[in-house]
Automatic annotation (TrEMBL):
<keyword id="KW-0472">Membrane</keyword>
<dbReference type="InterPro" id="IPR003807">
    <property type="entry name" value="DUF202"/>
</dbReference>
<feature type="transmembrane region" description="Helical">
    <location>
        <begin position="78"/>
        <end position="99"/>
    </location>
</feature>
<feature type="domain" description="DUF202">
    <location>
        <begin position="30"/>
        <end position="100"/>
    </location>
</feature>
<keyword id="KW-0812">Transmembrane</keyword>
<protein>
    <recommendedName>
        <fullName>DUF202 domain-containing protein</fullName>
    </recommendedName>
</protein>
<feature type="transmembrane region" description="Helical">
    <location>
        <begin position="129"/>
        <end position="150"/>
    </location>
</feature>
<keyword id="KW-1133">Transmembrane helix</keyword>
<feature type="transmembrane region" description="Helical">
    <location>
        <begin position="38"/>
        <end position="57"/>
    </location>
</feature>
<dbReference type="Pfam" id="PF02656">
    <property type="entry name" value="DUF202"/>
</dbReference>
Length: 154
């Protein structure tokens, strides 16, 4: 009879367990990419609202300058409302995306530290989030230009 201690087998030494851990890690990547696609849909919606609002504002401003209409205040207010709604939609999308990605990173860290998944693949910051913030700055500049008639959009 042998007096050696039995060796402890790592949970990832089993090929089935190893493959499951890798599939779970890839599922996190797919979820991250799905969150980016969701933010891109929010960007498209908010960009449409911002651009439509700005276009309505500028079109009625030109009609007023050409003396076709007397008052363009209601059109300006409607256009500004669309720009503000577009910015609010974008702010909500950015906040949701940041919250979701933080929760996903936390969950991935817990699973990685417990050895259930590999933490080898990078989880970089979202370039879609950077684009969303830049478009939000553009929307803010647009709304300031519409209200105060200053800036590059006058």
């Amino acid at each position: 009879m042998s007096t050696q201690d039995p060796t402890v087998v790592s949970p990832l030494s089993n090929p089935s367990t190893e493959l499951a851990a890798r599939r779970t890690g890839m599922a996190f990547q797919r979820t991250r990419l799905a969150a980016d696609r969701t933010l891109m849909a929010v960007i498209r919606t908010s960009l449409s609202l911002i651009s439509f609002g700005f276009t309505i504002h500028k079109a009625f401003e030109r009609l007023k300058d050409m003396k076709v209409i007397d008052h363009a205040a209601s059109a300006r207010n409607f256009g500004l409302s669309l720009v503000v709604i577009g910015m609010l939609v974008l702010i909500m999308g950015i906040i949701y995306h940041a919250w979701f990605m933080a929760a996903l990173r936390k969950q991935r860290g817990v699973l990685g530290s417990s050895g259930l998944i590999h933490g080898e693949t990078p989880f970089p910051p979202s370039m879609t989030l950077v684009a969303a913030v830049l478009i939000l700055v553009l929307g803010l500049a647009t709304s300031i230009s519409m209200v105060y008639h200053i800036g590059p959009y006058t």
